Amino acid sequence: MRIPLRRAVPIVVALALCVVAGVFTVRPGLSAADSATLARGFSFHKIALNSAPPEARREREVEPALKNLQAWISAVGAAVALADVRGLGRSADACLVDPRDDSVTVLPVPGAGGPQYPRFPLFPNGLRYDRTMAPMGCVPADLNEDGLQDFIVYYWGRSPVLFLNQGGPPAAAAFRPAELVQPMQVWNSSVVNVADIDGDGHVDIMVGNYFPDGAQVLDPAATADGRMQMQDSMGKARNGGTNRLYLTAPTGVRGAPPNLTDVSSAIPEDSAQSWTLALGMQDLTGSGRPDIYVANDFGPDQLLLNHSTPGRVRLDEIVGTRDATTPRSEVLGHDSFKGMGVTFTYPSGAGLPMIAVSNITTPFALQESNFAFVPTGAAQEIGSGKLPYTERSEDLGLARSGWAWDIKAGDFDNSGNDQLMQAVGFLKGTRDRWPELQELAMGNDQLLRYPQAWPKFQLGDDLSGQQHNPFYVKDSATGRYADLAPELNIADVWTSRGLAFGDVDGDGRLDALVANQWNDSYLLRNTSPVAAPGVDLRLVEPGAAGGERAAIGAQVVLHTDRPQKTQLYPANGHAGVSAAEVHLALPGAAATATVTWLAEGRLVSADVQVTPGHHTLLLNPDGTVVAR
Question: Is-above-0.90 flag for pTM?
């Protein structure tokens, strides 16, 4: 049967439009030859950080209402942090959280050198702790400013614990546990970050909580838990645990806990009640105090501008504006994606950073995108209430990677350009459960908070469990990033959670640690044969108890033909804490670096000559810098 020409024209036009649209939406990729060329500057050697403990588990016990979601609830907990426990002047020790036995272990990084010691646990002896609690992460911080490395461990089932270093050889007995809050409370914390929020010269503690406060998520005996709820919306959930913020004031006594002031009421309500998975600190306005990116599951992220003064915290949300080509879901503060990680990078030493955010981006499933918020203006505009950023992840080749968690930026080839790495994967199994999750996502938001309305997610189910961690390298010819993990033999199918970057062995090349869920965690030791010289700067300030503490929040600008810029916020992201050092490329024998920091409430800057290798810079209250 012949179709009349008039009736055929619309069909032909529609097909042509589909073809044209498809051509213009296909993301260009590198050829195999181009990928191989771009990969020549990188090489890694994988070394296991741990092995399966005796009677290793693959899931956790949960309260009865969550039994059908046991695999889902059990999908987090792996974490890693870099620290300097031995006083080597570089971060060659790791704090590793392994969900297979819910252990928190401090260990020397394999192959990092220095005096060795037996790995040891951080356990809250003398404090309330039972099987309804599980560690979720570990953050190094010198909380009492005595020059010794302390740790904050955060949990589901209880409020965080401070492990205060009393001195002596690295061992469990050297760390005295103390409560963050008195009395201990039932929180379900998924992230902790440290930064000087109020500009008084002492690092403060911000806690991102996930499940509602008091919810007994991991208690199999909690048969009538009225506080337990899942998210009350797929795109605007506001019934999570309350985020907390504490100002610290060291007492001046070595080994003693700092005085803490609860200023959590300063967090805007919508942000405080979000289901927070990641926190990112960065000074975007030039005030010397960090603004805060709050990355949230099941709802919009927030960018909080910091207008605080010593002892008085003021945080105000600022949101992006939408133009004709930007979907509402990609506007900062209006997005409905699953914010799960955040990092900052300054291409070519730009005045404002690109803000890279992890989301769930699995093809044919939750087809969202990662975010790459690229600056379109100057820092002064932010101070006047305008947010000069546009979302360009698609243009940059960063839009889709998998079920993504932590994300970090670092220069692994000492080229002066950061690469990006993401931790991806959720549930690894043999039964694909995406159809059930899709059905849930399209359902009624009013039912979402009830666990019984969710489909079953059990051991053996798979949700994005066959993905690899991408290693993004920018192609200078196209300006787009390419995932070179397969070319570099680091495309292992892990379900990863946290990343920590640092030059652990002191060879001038940045290394990476990867925390994996229900699997061994790994060191990716940088073995690049062509990496240019690099410099690692340990920035410290005089501490209240006579030691030197990391100058968290300090900024370094390196003046070379290819300017570089970075700020020291090691705990940015989700479940991974990088070294408390600044790593930069140094193409010549020496260069001038400008260091900017808050000194007794004043923003000061000083120039210093830097050379390849590891150096310590003491930032004095009078605005001078002593290099050693």
Answer: yes
